[in-house]
Amino acid sequence: MTKADLVEAVYAQLEGASRVSKRESADLVELVFDTLKDNLAAGDKVKISGFGNFVVRQKKPRVGRNPQTGKEITISERKVLSFKASQVLKSSLNA
Amino acid sequence: MTKSQLIDAIVQKKAGLPRKTVEQAVNAVFDEMVGAMKRGERIEIRGFGNFTVRKYKPYTGRNPKTGQSVSVEAKQMPFFKVGKDLRERINKS
């Protein structure tokens, strides 16, 4: 599934007063991910009920090893994004 | 940010569409993604990341508190891998 499929789904599912054009549907899908990205880039977490939470985590620097050469290197401090699926999503995958 | 804040933010950016419409669109997006994962499909969102469903075999685990063995059944879990663009943006902030 790609963004194009999501655009198609929004276009097909919105009915009556909520009908949108293909163009608007594409804009809406784009806005969903752009807004999520801006928010996460600002370090704020995102909670989508029934789906899951996206959290930006601060990682401390640590010593790692190059598995090929065995050489020790310092892995620098960084921020990573982690996704935790909601209980609802997890159980629907195992139903 | 919660889903309703996400909806509000989109309503602000996309002037002209009623909140109700945006709400339905946002719900459709997440519902579709859940549906895809249920079918075991991979979701690829350029610039954001990929969602895949990972299958886990059954294993014998332990309750870390009591040390008692518990058998964990085979299960499927959603997995998210962040896209390169977003990973770099987050790290820079």
Radius of gyration of chain A: 19 Å
* Overall domain count of chain B: 2
CATH architecture field of the largest domain in chain B? Irregular
How much beta of chain A, percentage-wise?
A: 25-35%
Main sheet properties of chain A: 3 strands, antiparallel
What does this protein structure show overall?
The complex is a heterodimer of chains A (95) and B (93). Chain A folds into 2 domains: 1-44; 45-95, HU Protein, Chain A. Helices cover 40% and strands 28% of the residues of chain A. Chain A is built from 3 helices and 5 strands; from the N terminus they run ααβββββα. Chain A has helices spanning 3-13, 22-41, 87-93; strands spanning 46-48, 52-59, 62-65, 72-75, 78-85. In chain A, strand 1 and strand 2 (52-59) form a beta hairpin. In chain A, helix 1 (3-13) crosses helix 2 (22-41). With 93 residues, chain B is of the alpha+beta class. In chain B, 43% of the residues lie in helices and 29% in strands. Chain B contains 3 helices and 5 strands; from the N terminus they run H-H-E-E-E-E-E-H. In chain B, helix 1 (3-13) crosses helix 2. The longest helix of chain B has 20 residues, at 19-38. Chain B starts with a helix and ends with a helix. The model of chain B has no long low-confidence stretch (mean pLDDT 94). At the A-B interface, helix 1, helix 2, strand 1, strand 2 and strand 5 of A face helix 1, helix 2, strand 1, strand 5 and helix 3 of B.
Brief write-up:
Chain A is α+β, with helices and mostly antiparallel strands.
Q: What order do the helices and strands come in, and which of them pair?
A:
The complex is a heterodimer of chains A (95) and B (93).
Chain A: H1 3-13, H2 22-41, E1 46-48, E2 52-59, E3 62-65, E4 72-75, E5 78-85, H3 87-93
Antiparallel strand pairs in A: 1-2, 2-5, 3-4
Helix pairs in contact in A: 1-2
Chain B: H1 3-13, H2 19-38, E1 43-45, E2 49-56, E3 59-62, E4 69-72, E5 75-82, H3 84-92
Antiparallel strand pairs in B: 1-2, 2-5, 3-4
